[in-house]
Design a protein that fits this description.
Transcriptional regulator, DeoR family, Arc Repressor Mutant, subunit A, transcription, DNA-binding, single chain, DNA-binding transcription factor activity, Rossmann fold, Tscrpt_reg_HTH_DeoR_CS, six-stranded parallel β-sheet, three-stranded antiparallel β-sheet
């Protein structure tokens, strides 16, 4: 089990129990106490838990959506791999939509560095993605920003965003998700964000979902689209 998987499991135990002990985690995961201490120290540095003698306790931020800056430091290699695969589904001249979240942002980075970005139009509700395109200063890529209410993940959501999205049509939408459940669908901690993502799916000919499969569900989640065989694309 790699460090990111251990850390997600540690956070899962914290959400359930409120506190964890190094000795118990070491035994459960089959790794040394020193390894668990390093994982806890890393999570503490990211503000996701509080270190105490012999273990860790939960923080208020653990029960809400982490900031974009915190999530951007997680699973970097996995996000790169997902992005490199996903850009194969973009052709020069396409009109696409890119949702919020750090995996979608990494996808945008890889896309803008590729030949597939030639002549594309990007609809996005992600402030970081919009800023990324603007910084590129390329006349070959057009960006449309939805407007709306800002979330902790630097996404724009709500009625304004949904209205802008509904007025357009795209070839493919690329969306991140917080977790996936076969019976419940794609899960989000923010109902407004879920609604805007659904609006993007409704205007797209094809949907690609970025799923880092070991993500842990939050306490407050919204199921916003069920999984259907042969339907929307789903990336792990």
């Amino acid at each position: 089990m790699i460090s990111s998987q251990r850390q997600h499991l540690i956070l899962s135990r914290l959400r359930t129990r409120g506190a964890v002990r190094i000795t118990a985690l070491s035994k459960e995961l089959g790794v040394s106490a020193m390894t668990i201490r390093r994982d806890i120290a890393d999570l503490a540095d990211k503000g996701l838990l509080k270190r105490v003698h012999g273990g860790a306790v939960t923080t208020s931020t653990l029960l809400s959506e982490p900031l974009f800056s915190v999530k951007s430091q997680m699973d970097i290699g996995l996000k790169d791999a997902i992005a490199q695969e996903a850009i194969k589904y973009v052709a020069p001249g396409d009109v696409i939509a890119i949702g919020g979240g750090t995996t979608a942002y990494v996808f945008a980075q890889h896309l803008l560095e590729s030949q597939q970005s030639s002549g594309i139009t990007i609809l996005t509700n992600s402030i970081p993605v919009a800023e990324l395109v603007q910084a590129l200063e390329s006349k070959d890529v057009e960006v449309i920003v939805t407007g709306g209410v800002t979330t902790r993940s630097n996404s724009l959501v709500g009625p304004i965003a949904d209205k802008v999205v509904a007025s357009l049509r795209v070839n493919t939408v690329f969306l991140g998700t917080h977790s996936v459940s076969i019976p419940r669908g794609f899960l989000m901690p923010n109902s407004l964000e879920a609604a805007t993502d659904m609006a993007m799916m409704d205007i797209a000919d094809r949907t690609i979902i970025f799923d880092r499969s070991h993500q842990v569900e939050l306490h407050i989640i919204v199921a916003f689209r069920t999984l259907r065989p042969g339907g929307h694309g789903h990336y792990r």
